[in-house]
Amino acid sequence: MSSHSSPRKTPAWRRYLSFWGADTVADVDDELRFHIDMRAADYAARGLTSDAARRRAEQRFGNVARARDACVQIDRQQERTENHMHMLIALGQDAAYALRVLRRQWVPALAAILCMAVGVSATTAMFSIVDTLLLRPLPYPNGDRLVAISTAHAGALSGSVSSYLDYRDWRESQHSFDEIGALGQTDLVMLRGEPTNVSAALVSESFFRVFGVTPELGRLFTNADDQAGAAPVMVVSDAFARQQFGEAAHAIGQSVMLNGAARVIVGVIPNQWRYPSRTEAWLPIATGGYSGFSNGVLNPSSRGNRNLEVFGALRRGVTLDVARRDLAAIAARLQHEWPQSNAEETTAMMPLRELYVGDVRGSLYAVIGATILVLLIACANVAALQLARATARTREIAVRAAIGASRSRIVRQLLTESVVLSLAGGALGALLAVWSRALIQRAVAPNTPAWMTFSIDGRALLFALVVSAIAGIAFGVAPALRLADIRAGAALRNATVGATRSRLQRAFVAAEVAISIMLVVSASLALESVWRIQRIPIGIDPHDVVSFQITMQGARYDRPPARAQLIADIEQRLHALPGVTGAGAADRMPINGCCSQFTARIEGQTDDEGHAPLITGTIATPGYFSTLRVHRIAGRTFTADDDANAPKVTVINQTFADKYWPNGDAIGHHVNTGVGDATVIGIVQDVKQATIFGAPEPQFFRPYAEDPWTNVTFAVRSHGDLAQVAAAARRVVHAVDPTMPIFNVQTLEAVFDESTLTTRSLSRLLVAFAGIALLLAATGLYGLISFLVERRTRELGLRVALGAEPSRVAAMVVRQAMMLAAGGAVIGIGGAMLAAKWLAATLYGVTSREPSVYVAAAVILGAASLAAAYGPARRASRADPMDALRAE
Amino acid sequence: MPDANVEVLRGTLDLLILKAVSWGPTHGYGVARWIEQATGDVLQIEEGSLYPALHRLQARHWIDAEWGISENNRRARFYTLTAKGRAQLRVEAATWTRFAYAVFAALEAPPHPA
Predict the structure, then answer these.
(1) What DSSP line would sit under A210-263, residue for residue?
(2) Domain check: are A408 and A320 in the same one?
(3) What's the predicted TM-score (pTM) here?
């Protein structure tokens, strides 16, 4: 009986797990052929001719095909049933081994885990935000097909508001929507004890059906509720019901005094379905005091009265384009039927999501990009660390190869290690994500509605898991393949293997440097943008000013002179407060969202194509200009004498004056903004009204006393404590009218800060990312240089022994590090220029060609590289030839 | 061969295979030859069922298989007894021996006392 041991010790089942699989059929064929050949050879040895011997052998064997099929079937079955199990066992073994290895070298392992954690936490936090903003349907039953419909004036999307009559015509004629509804936001005053301000919405009866909202208690509106003269009802949020009545169920049937009239609560809706998200009460348009109704009757002339938001739920299967064409056709018909109000009005439509994502898309993409770069850099660092660790592992791997571990087995082992590393990092990163999410959200979406809840939920955790697993594999493959090439005996050829390995490592480190440069440049640009924003001339001095809003309600304010008197009275009393240097009022303060716009007929201007320009108008008291320190350029501003009985006057801003009276003779000319000709009496510098960004637009001011609105915002300037000033102001108002609600108390500085919040947060985030990237790149560089120095210990030692100045040896090492950093920097600056070009579109006032930014980034990187190279260089300069020799 | 004996014979074949590979790594032909020689060519196993039996035993982890180089320098599949297979061999051999003795005893027994 002769038998030979196989040179390979791998059990057969492991062969089936090899990367390339096994050919079961060919193996069985081989085995059976071997048998028949051997039998034939035996017969031949006993004297048969080779043909006869073979025939005899085949005869003796019987049905080869059947035996073969039986064997193949058994083998396949075995493969199937055992593959998974053995895969798991092998994986478990690999993982256990990986953990042992990592524990033995815990410092680099910990470094790699931390790198990964940083990358994964940023990516996961980003994912939770992207998931909510872009991926998930809105949290309404009809969330996936909600669209916002708006009226476009003269082709330009001037605002998203539409008129009630247009809305009704759209609704009757459209074929693309299951339902469309209209909404107007308003503030109401509720009297239940203290007068309080209630965020309310006037909605069409169809509104809740558009969103698919069902009541939690009671009912929603019916067609009968939304008729002029119907009994006044309202629907409230669960939060409001609980706050006011203790329990939601107690709210139903309650009568509440709103703006001086009783109104019955008929339904309660769940908080998560509120729209707009901070709304507490919804009233039918027809009974809610909507301006299109006068004395309870719909005013047919109100078609030009555009102040409602319109929403629709697309019919299933209808695309946005089809719906757009549908409404465009209706708008075209209305243009003909109502030329007075609709001559240039068309419709525009976008998914509701766009209302929230549109504004933040730029910074969202910037942060997504930065996050991916941080993840990449973390991965590159882990890969570089893996390679560096290889120095210590060359012998181990060579031994494993020598005792028979196949290449694929070693690759798998090393891959398992990097996956274990990145999963550990990923787990830590998921924990960190909870914290970094808040940071990122402030930069990306500070003003998203409450219903957009960003949370690190199951999806985000799954994402973290998948990202870290993929990162572990993707960035583990190259080092693993490289390392696995160390075969038996390779330990002796260490030098050559080391050379190829360090080349790969250099590539990783150079990539880290490149990515860091991109992030540093992006962060610098964001900082530059913040710097520029802080210096935008806004036309007012927002420091030391507190503002608050009041609403007049009740019969005593029905007459305009009563309103004018009240505001003049309050303004005077505020002015008399100790420490107050100025008090004024307007319909709204600057930088506070857009504005009222008026069709203006300007003296000396011929109306092009029959339409007059829309110009932003502000109603202001005499104290407004001095309190906000709006600089007067020419003429005068308002006085207490500019009231309803005086000749109509107006103050215009510089842009207005320059645009229509380029010769500088604006004063004395006339502007008609719908209330008759007003004489231009003064020119003031431009004030940023809607937002601080963008070019200044023409704006006019009219005296409050001439057209006293019921909603007024006061501004009070004081050198004292603004909180105390606000409290004093509240006492002043309540001394005049104890039922007057005061709300939106805030400093103008806070308003200003809020408008720059996104950019400031974005820059903070990018700076944080750039810092992390720098740290990671420096770590990578440090690891690489240490590794290179260690490998050259003998050579460096010899140099020192042969008389080389230690400082020159150190310089050599530093030069090597700097060359590498420079290589990465060149690539990085190229990438940074691309990133900057794109950021320039997102960030205010940033140009992509600011050489100082690139120079600064290169200097920062150079300094980091120097710091990273310092330690290894010092060690190299102290290389002792005797140590070097002993080290071998 | 009558069908009734197949089960017994298959069990027997498994036992013989385990015994054959217990001496060291052996290829299929080696197993067949060993059985022929060891039984003085009395038991000529059906070769068509030898290989499925080998693969089945391997699937049960009683034997391991690996490719190696045969005595005439050809690639051949070698089977070795696993620890599990060795235990199985001990059990089955004991059972078979008891069975055989029982049969022998019956065959050698005096006539039935009537």
Answers:
(1) HHT---SEE----TTTTSTTPPPEEEEEHHHHHHHHSSHHHHTT-EEEETTEEE
(2) no
(3) 0.62
